[in-house]
Amino acid sequence: MACGLFFSNQLLFWFLVVGTLINIFVVMFASSRLEREYERTNMVHIIKDSLIERYGLMTMIALGEIISILYDFSKTPINWNRFIQFTLCIILVALLAAVYYQVLGELHIQLNSSIATSLTGWLFLLVILFAFLIGVSLHLVIIDGNLESKILFSFSLILMLLMIRVLFLISIHFKLSKLEVKLSWILLIEMIINLAAAFLPAMGMILLDILVLIIIAGQGRIILKR
């Protein structure tokens, strides 16, 4: 608040960007000191299950905020079109949560360096960030349904799914079976479909994204059973 008295909004935005980048990459410059601290305290390079659970709770809050925004929007005025939009959006959010927690429940991440451990933690934060972006862009989609808001939503959804996939790959040290390699190519196709869906009407885009998320959830069950 105090900074806003002395700097313009545009300058504050760039301060925020620079500060965020410093927070992300500072571990690379302090890696040797961080590694010595790990050795001194006999710490192992893992993301603890308790920390993964906290990231999961933060993501749950983000997804809950999406539902709250959608509920407030659906109340006025009430009509069948608004009700159908609200229902489809809730289904989409529920499927997104199912895909995320399906992977989260199976993550046991052990790494070989302090840098990898810190950067993996940032991947969880990126998942949460993209969840919030999905909420904002989905709200914009159902308000006016313009192409820009639909593209923002599609990119946010794709990037969140991509971060979830990367976290899973890190947990298995990128050692994929032949089936998982095939499913990875299918996932890439599904992400392209998600992006192409942005050029459909809003309701069509949401329906297609729901279908893709159902398929992704099914693929997740196949992988986790092996």
TrEMBL record:
The keyword Transmembrane helix applies. This is Low temperature requirement protein A. Keywords: Membrane, Transmembrane, Transmembrane helix. The chain crosses the membrane at residues 12-30, 83-101, 122-143, 149-171.
